[in-house]
Amino acid sequence: MSETIGFLLNDAARLYRRGFNARVRDTGITALQWRLMIYLRRFEGIRQGPLAELIEVEPITLSRMVDRLEEAGLVERRADPTDRRAWLLHLTPRADELIAGMRPVTDALAEEATDGLSAAERDQLTGLVERVRANLSRRICQKEETAA
To answer: Which of 2, 34, 83, 116 is 20 to 30 A from 71 in CA distance terms?
Structure first.
């Protein structure tokens, strides 16, 4: 019996998270917190609401995550100059150091996950998964627009 692409992607992501969490346990950072920080690196100064949507957690869950990362000195909230009720999220220099320090760990995990694949196959796999993600992202956005 062959597995569906959805099952395979989901199961691979689960195993990848497990491997990540095992490797970084001593840092106190979880895979979801890591994801939050990587998104913050990409979208520096984003508000909490849009970030919650990006990482697909409830706003209250994100708020608690940010609280923990703020207490750890990794994230800071800055007042939004255009809306005094809103906060803009920024990584601290300590977070930048942590991310840089964890790069060898994430690189080793990626290497393990793609063991036995040639460089061309790795590039092809990355491209194919990016296309699957783009396809799903477009369809989700279209459904949201239709529902609105």
So the answer is: 83
